[in-house]
Amino acid sequence: xxxxxxxLDRAAFKRCxxxxxxxxxxxxxxxxxxxxxxxxxQAIRDALAVYYYPGMWDWQSSIVLPLVRKxxxxxxxxxxxxxxxxxxxxxxxxxxxRYFDWAPSVDxxxxxxxxxDVEVIVPDIREPERGLLSPDGQRVLYTERVALVGADVDDxxxxxVHHVVPDWQDIESLLLDEAAIAACWAWEQTYLGMDVAGTxxxxxxxxxxxxxxxxxxxxxxxxxxxxxxxxxxxxGGGRFLPQAERPDRLERRPATRPRVEQxxxxxxxxxxxxxxxxxxxxxxxxxxxxxxxxxxxDLRPYPTPSPRHCPGCAFLAPCLAMTQGADPALELAARFQxxxxxxxxxxxxxxxxxxxxxxxxxxxxxxxx
Length: 369
Ligand code: SF4
Hints:
9 strands, alpha+beta, globular, two-stranded antiparallel sheet
């Protein structure tokens, strides 16, 4: 058995060690008995996984969009009935309809994989040629589910990240999006030979801009329907895209390209950030250092209170008890149960095989250190 550190685990560890200690599959793995709050971001992501499903990318919108709506409804319906659920349903439906209108005017890639699971050995930063081992000798793996990987017209691969946001995020936050950079690294290590050019941050505004105007009638690539690049042409993304970049595409790539390209289309904003090798390598070092901290014998799971994350924390009540010097055992026993030993992702259509079409991707062996 391996010691798996998921991207969610890592984020929790960095956010608040006490929260991580309560909830991590490698720690107390406590799960609240109360239903989880509605996750609109996840529901939209579930819907976009169908929108960009490679095997249906060439299908007519009149067939695909109802399936996208259905995927969203299914995700929302998993939560118990509540006023929040109705609100999320209304807002998410509106967001999706806006997305259908505006996304074709900015989509300039072809989807290769959606919801792809990747896992790689975490290097031991004290001995870079070796993989990190847990104290009881297990391999330590970093795991992630990548929402979307697409290829552009130059055969460059991009990790696409979806964000539903109240306001556009500042560019510094996107540049420093360590989860997205880690996803680039994990993808490259899982699919050897597929170097990633960078990340595309696909932001959707929650609030309705006052004057959106009319969505453009033309798609970015000229391809009718949902735009992007077809699965049936060798021009970026799709069925005939080989795993290695084609020589003519390599030749025509400009020598220099901007680090950041950003554009707004109605309620959507696309930020394309080229990630350097040094940037990805630095992220690996950082993950190695963080996991060493997680595994360290002197780890102290201290709390990191913040108005940003405490209000939504499932462990607020036991944490408050501990802060007051009380024993949280009663609270934990009454409201939590032990969860599974590993992060379980719901299986997704097309997550494992590029959408069931004949997309040529190299296999995914884990690189042994
Ligand atoms: S309530 Fe805040 S400080 Fe306490 S465990 Fe949760 S995130 Fe950490």
